[in-house]
Amino acid sequence: MTRKSSDAPMSDLDRKTIALIDSIARQVRVDIESGRLPDIELPARSLDNVTYDEAKGYFELGEVRKVRTLTVTTARSFAQTLRMMAAARSMIENDDFATK
């Protein structure tokens, strides 16, 4: 893995994040190749599933999870989720960040 903008080694959190992205992508591929509809389990992004941590100064996602399954009606949002995972992986590898 390369670090384009710095020679600093990748953090443990970065390595764990990339491993999780790779694991999810691998499972989606296995499901598709096996003829099953792939799904991804993600934290629910709702106000009911966040808490504000005053010490850290930001909101944190809770334990509630949501399963996103590939169907005819969800193909676009499922593909967008996979694309965002790929973009996040690339940014981590290149020590980059998104501004929007």
Summarize it.
By secondary structure, this protein is an alpha+beta fold. It is built from 2 helices and 4 strands.
List the helices and strands and how they pair.
Layout: H1 12-33, E1 39-43, E2 50-53, E3 58-61, E4 65-69, H2 75-93
Antiparallel strand pairs: 1-4, 2-3
Helix pairs in contact: 1-2
Please give the order of strands in the largest beta sheet.
1-4
Any low-confidence stretches, pLDDT <50, length ≥5?
Answer: none
The total count of strands amounts to 4
Determine Rg (CA atoms, Å). 16 Å
Beta-strand percentage range: 15-25%
Number of helices: 2
Rounded to the nearest angstrom, the distance between the terminal CA atoms is: 25 Å
**Overall mean pLDDT:** 91
Indicate how many domains the architecture comprises.
1
Report the order of strands and helices.
HEEEEH
Label the overall shape: globular
Secondary structure class reads alpha+beta
Give a short account of the largest sheet.
2 strands, antiparallel
The helix content, as a percent range, equals 40-55%
Descriptive report:
It is a single chain. With 100 residues, the protein is α+β, with helices and mostly antiparallel strands. Helix content is 41%, strand content 18%. The chain has two helices and four strands. Strands 1-4 form a two-stranded antiparallel ribbon. Strands 2-3 form a two-stranded antiparallel sheet. A hairpin with a 4-residue loop joins strand 2 (50-53) and strand 3 (58-61). Helix 1 (12-33) packs antiparallel against helix 2 (75-93). The two termini are 25 Å apart.
